Amino acid sequence: MKHVARKRFGQNFLHDKYVLEDITSAIGPAPDDTMVEIGPGLAAMTKGLLRTLKHMHVVELDRDLVARLEKDFPREQLTIHAGDALKFDFGAIPVPAGKKLRIVGNLPYNISSPLLFHLAEFASVVEDQHFMLQKEVVERMVAEPGCKTFGRLSVMLQWRYDMKLLFVVPPEAFDPPPKVESAIVRMIPVAEQLRCDGETLEAVVQKAFSQRRKVIRNCLAGMFTEEQIIAAGIDPTHRPEVVGLAQYVALANILKPV
C-alpha cells in the first residue's frame, strides 16, 4: 500500500535515484560506521547506505513507517528507534571504542532549527552530520559575518561545527514536491571549540539579533556597557550581522568568564 505523506510530520520523500546516489557518495559510508538516520521515511536513503554499511540505526516518529521498516529490514541490519528525534538521546547509541557517531537524514523542515540545536548537545560524540534541509536554512547556517543571512543560527552552529553547503536539490526530486529548494549540508564538529558558557552565548546572541536593524550598542543595551562592547573588539555602531563568532564569544566571557 502506498504511504501518503503526512503534513504534520513534514514528510516529503526523496525519490530521485541520481540525487540519492550523490548524497550517498557525499556521505561516504564505510562498512563498520555507526550511523543513524533521522526520519528514514520510505527508506530510499537507508537502502543506499546499507549497500555499504553492515548495520545502521534509524529514528522514526510515524508508526506506520516504523511498521513498514520492521517488515522490510531484519533486526541484524537495522535497529529502529520509534520516537521523536527532538527528544531522542543520540548519546545512548553504542559506539565502538575510538569511534564516533555519524548522523544523516532528510530533516523535517518544520522542525529543522530546534532539531539542529538538540543535535548540537551531542557534538562531542559525533564524527560528522549530513542533512537535507531547506536551502534557505542551510544558507543561514553557513553564512559569514556581513551577509544579510548571518544570524543566531549561524553563530550558534558555527560555534560547534565547520559547515559546508554541498549541493542544491530541486523540488521535483521529492514526492510530494516541496515549495522550496533543498540543499545538502555537511557538519563536522570543530576540533577546538572557542571556550565560553553555551547558555550565556545563546542569551547574548538572541538579544543581539532580536533587533537586527539597530546598531549593536542599542541591541545589547542593559546587558553590556559601550565600554564592554569595545573591550570585546566590537565597533558599537556596527549592526549584529557584521559581528563575528569570536566577538560574540568574547561578550559571553565578559558576562560569565570560563
From TrEMBL:
Domain of life (superkingdom): Bacteria
Binding site for S-adenosyl-L-methionine: 12, 14, 39, 60, 84, 106
Cellular compartment(s): Cytoplasm
Ribosomal RNA adenine methylase transferase N-terminal domain sequence ranges: 19-191
UniProt keyword annotations, A-Z: Cytoplasm, Methyltransferase, RNA-binding, rRNA processing, S-adenosyl-L-methionine, Transferase
One GO CC annotation: cytosol
UniProt-listed InterPro entries: KsgA/Erm, rRNA_Ade_diMease-like_C, rRNA_Ade_Mease_Trfase_CS, rRNA_Ade_methylase_Trfase_N, rRNA_adenine_dimethylase, SAM-dependent_MTases_sf
Entry keyword Transferase: yes
One annotated GO molecular function: RNA binding
Reactions accelerated catalytically: adenosine(1518)/adenosine(1519) in 16S rRNA + 4 S-adenosyl-L-methionine = N(6)-dimethyladenosine(1518)/N(6)-dimethyladenosine(1519) in 16S rRNA + 4 S-adenosyl-L-homocysteine + 4 H(+)
Any Pfam family matching the protein: RrnaAD
EC number annotated for this UniProt entry: 2.1.1.182
Family: Belongs to the class I-like SAM-binding methyltransferase superfamily. rRNA adenine N(6)-methyltransferase family. RsmA subfamily.
Function: Specifically dimethylates two adjacent adenosines (A1518 and A1519) in the loop of a conserved hairpin near the 3'-end of 16S rRNA in the 30S particle. May play a critical role in biogenesis of 30S subunits.
HAMAP family, alphabetized: 16SrRNA_methyltr_A
Name of the featured protein: Ribosomal RNA small subunit methyltransferase A
UniProt organism field: Duganella phyllosphaerae
The organism's taxonomic lineage, starting at the top: Bacteria, Pseudomonadati, Pseudomonadota, Betaproteobacteria, Burkholderiales
Gene it is expressed from: rsmA
